C-alpha cells in the first residue's frame, strides 16, 4: 500500500490510499472439474509495462481460445472408397477447426505404431496450409485395432519417442486416442500410453506449447460398469484427467446401441419411460443425439450408467451420412439436436464427423431416412455453421 501525505495551509491533513491489486493469471488446467481462471491484471496506467518477450501475453478475455471455442472436427484419410473423395488436406473446407489424420497404427501387439500416408510430402504441405489458417492437426492413434494396440510397461519410452517422431516429422499439434476392440481391456497398455502422453504434454508446456490430447470412444465403452471388467475408456479418462482437451464420442456404428429413456425426458419428448432409442432409429436420430449427449454430460442416468464428461470438453461425433456409418447425421437431426440442447441450456463444444472424405463428396447417396438423396459437398460443415458454430460457450 502506498500512502501519499500532502499538507496544505488551507486544508486539513488528508491521507489517501491507493490500492493496486496484482493477480497472477495461472494457466488453465484441462480437467473434468475445470476451475475458472483468474482475471488477468491490467498494468498500472501510470506505469506502462512491456510484456516479457519470452512470455506469451494473455489473450483478450472476449477472444475464444482452444480451450473454450466452438469446434468442428473431421477425420481424414487417403485410402478412398465409394461415396467419398480423396480430398487433399490443402483443399479441406476451412470451417473445420481440427483435422485428425488417420491412423497411427500397428497390426501386431507390442510393436510400435506407424503413420504411412500414400503421399507424405503432400500431407506435410497440407498441414502447413492448415496451420496458416489457424487450424490444428492431430494424429489419430488406433482405428479398428482389435488386439493390436498393446504395449508393455518397459515400452513406455519407446512409445513416447515413436509418437514424438511422427509429431515432429509432420509438424502436428497432438494425438487423438481412437482405440477400439479388445485392446481396451488391457489396463497395462492404457496406463503406459497415458503416461507417455502426459510426459509429452508436460514437456511441451515447459516450452510454452500445448500438446492436444483427445479421444474418440465408441459408446459401449462409456458405461461405468466397464471400468473393472472388459473394454473401457474410463481408465483413459481418469489417468488423463487434467490433461485431455476434449472427448468426441462416436455416436455411430453402435449396432442398435442407445440409451434407455428416463422419466423426465420421456415426458419432454413424448417417449415411453424405459424405452430404448438406438442409433439405428432413423426417425428419432435427433432424440438419440440429444439423449446420449445429456446422459453423458449433465445428467447421471440410473437406467444407463454412463460416465459423465464435462460438457466444455464434449464434442458430439456423428457420421457424415449413411454411407459413412450407421447413426448418420442429416440436416434435420443436427438442427433439432441443437435446439433441444439449447432449450435445456446444455452447451457442448461442437461437432465431430467421420469423415471429411465423405463431406467432400457430392452426388446421390443412400438416404438417412429412405431411398436415395442428393448429398451436397460440405453439407456437414454447413449444418455446423447453422447451429453449434453460433453458440456462446465462453
From TrEMBL:
Residues covered by region (Disordered): 27-66
The EC number(s) this enzyme carries: 3.2.1.14
Family assignment from sequence similarity: Belongs to the glycosyl hydrolase 18 family.
TM region(s), chain numbering: none
Domain of life: Bacteria
SMART domains: Glyco_18
UniProt cross-references to PANTHER family, sorted A to Z: ENDOCHITINASE
Name of the protein in its database record: chitinase
Keyword vocabulary terms for this entry: Glycosidase, Hydrolase
A single BP term in Gene Ontology: carbohydrate metabolic process
Pro residues bias: start-end ranges: 40-62
Lineage, uppermost ranks: Bacteria, Bacillati, Mycoplasmatota, Mollicutes, Entomoplasmatales
Amino acid at each position: 500500500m502506498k500512502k501519499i501525505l500532502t499538507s496544505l495551509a488551507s486544508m486539513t491533513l488528508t491521507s489517501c490510499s491507493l490500492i493496486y491489486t496484482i493477480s497472477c493469471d495461472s494457466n488453465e488446467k484441462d480437467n473434468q472439474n475445470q476451475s475458472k481462471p483468474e482475471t488477468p491484471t491490467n498494468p498500472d496506467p501510470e506505469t506502462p509495462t512491456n510484456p516479457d518477450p519470452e512470455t506469451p501475453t494473455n489473450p483478450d478475455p472476449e477472444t475464444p481460445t482452444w480451450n473454450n471455442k466452438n469446434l468442428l472436427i473431421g477425420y481424414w484419410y487417403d485410402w478412398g472408397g465409394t461415396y467419398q473423395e480423396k480430398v487433399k488436406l490443402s483443399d479441406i473446407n476451412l470451417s473445420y477447426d481440427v483435422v485428425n489424420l488417420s491412423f497411427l497404427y500397428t497390426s501386431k501387439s507390442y510393436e510400435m505404431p506407424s503413420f504411412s500416408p500414400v503421399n507424405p510430402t503432400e500431407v506435410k504441405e497440407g498441414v502447413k496450409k492448415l496451420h496458416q489458417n489457424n487450424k490444428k492437426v492431430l494424429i489419430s492413434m488406433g482405428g479398428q485395432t482389435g488386439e493390436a494396440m498393446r504395449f508393455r510397461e518397459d515400452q513406455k519410452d519407446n512409445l513416447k519417442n515413436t509418437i514424438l517422431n511422427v509429431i515432429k516429422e509432420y509438424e502436428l499439434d497432438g494425438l487423438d486416442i481412437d482405440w477400439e476392440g479388445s485392446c481396451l481391456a488391457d489396463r497395462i497398455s492404457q496406463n503406459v500410453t497415458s503416461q507417455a502422453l502426459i510426459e509429452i504434454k508436460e514437456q511441451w508446456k515447459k516450452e510454452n506449447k500445448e500438446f492436444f490430447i483427445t479421444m474418440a470412444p465408441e459408446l459401449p465403452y462409456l458405461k461405468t460398469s466397464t471400468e473393472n471388467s472388459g473394454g473401457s475408456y474410463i481408465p483413459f479418462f481418469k489417468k488423463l484427467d487434467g490433461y485431455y482437451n476434449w472427448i468426441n464420442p462416436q455416436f455411430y456404428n453402435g449396432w442398435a446401441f442407445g440409451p434407455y429413456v428416463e422419466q423426465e425426458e420421456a415426458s419432454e419428448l413424448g417417449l415411453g419411460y424405459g424405452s430404448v432409442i438406438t442409433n439405428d432409429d432413423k426417425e428419432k436420430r435427433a432424440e438419440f443425439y440429444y439423449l446420449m449427449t445429456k446422459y453423458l454430460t449433465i445428467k447421471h442416468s440410473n437406467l444407463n450408467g454412463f460416465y459423465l464428461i464435462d460438457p466444455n470438453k464434449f464434442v458430439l461425433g456423428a457420421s457424415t451420412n449413411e454411407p459413412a456409418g450407421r447413426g448418420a447425421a442429416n440436416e434435420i437431426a443436427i438442427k433439432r439436436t441443437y435446439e433441444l440442447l439449447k432449450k435445456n441450456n446444455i452447451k457442448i463444444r461442437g461437432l465431430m464427423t467421420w469423415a471429411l472424405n465423405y463431406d467432400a463428396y457430392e452426388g446421390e447417396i443412400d438416404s438417412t431416412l429412405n431411398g436415395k438423396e442428393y448429398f451436397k459437398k460440405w453439407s456437414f460443415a454447413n449444418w455446423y455453421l447453422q447451429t453449434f458454430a453460433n453458440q456462446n460457450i465462453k
